[in-house]
Amino acid sequence: MSLPEVVSTVTEDVQAHRKSEFALSPLFLNRWSPRAFTDRKVSDEDLHAILEAAHWAPSSFNDQPWRFIVAKTEEQLNVFRGFLGDFNKLWASSAPVLVVIASDKQRENGDPNGAHAFDSGTAWGYLALQATLKGIASHAIGGFDRQAAREALNVPDHYELHAVIAIGYRGDKNELPEGIREREVPNGRKPLSEVVFEGRIGS
C-alpha cells in the first residue's frame, strides 16, 4: 500500500466493511488488524521508524512509561511464540516481528504512575498508525501467558505486560486455518451516538 493511498483514499477491501459517519483521514479506516502475514522481512529502518512513532506518544509528565521488547530473529521469535495462547499461535507465528509492550508502573522517584497503562495504549495506537503509513500490518494480542513472558524475557515486577504486537506484511487469508479465515476482514464500529455523551452519560 503506497503512502498516497493510505492518506488519501479508503482501500477497496476496507470500503466494503467500514463507513465513517463523519469525514476523517482514510488512514484511520485503512488501519485494521489482520491475521494473515507473509514471511517477508520488515527492514530495520521501517521497524525502527514504527517504534520511533510509538515513542513520540504523549504521556503524563512525559514519563514515557512504555517499553518495547522486540523479537525478529528465529531464536527470539520461538521464545515469544512459546507464551502465546494456542489460538494466537495458529496465525501470529507467521509474523516476522513480535513486540511485547510493557509499561513501568513507577515514576522515576518511585511514586506510582497511575497513567502508565493509558499512556502505553496511546503508544500502541501511534505504532499501529505508523505501520499503516508504511504499508505494514500490525495486530495487538492480549491472549498470552503473562507470567511465562515475564520469566522468559526477564521483565521486572514493576513493569506491567499489556500485549504482544504482531508486525509484518499482509498475507493471503486463504493460508489461514479454517475458522480464522472468515474473520479476516476489517471490522466496523458502533454508532458514534453509543459511545459519545454530552454533559453526562445517558443525556
TrEMBL record:
It comes from the Bacteria. Keywords: Oxidoreductase. It holds the Pfam family Nitroreductase. The keyword Oxidoreductase applies. CDD domains: TdsD-like (cd02138). Signal peptide: none annotated. InterPro entries: Nitroreductase (IPR029479), Nitroreductase-like (IPR000415). Coiled coil: none annotated. Residues 30-77, 90-169 form the Nitroreductase domain. Belongs to the nitroreductase family. This is Nitroreductase family protein. It comes from Paenibacillus hodogayensis. The lineage of its organism: Bacteria, Bacillati, Bacillota, Bacilli, Bacillales.
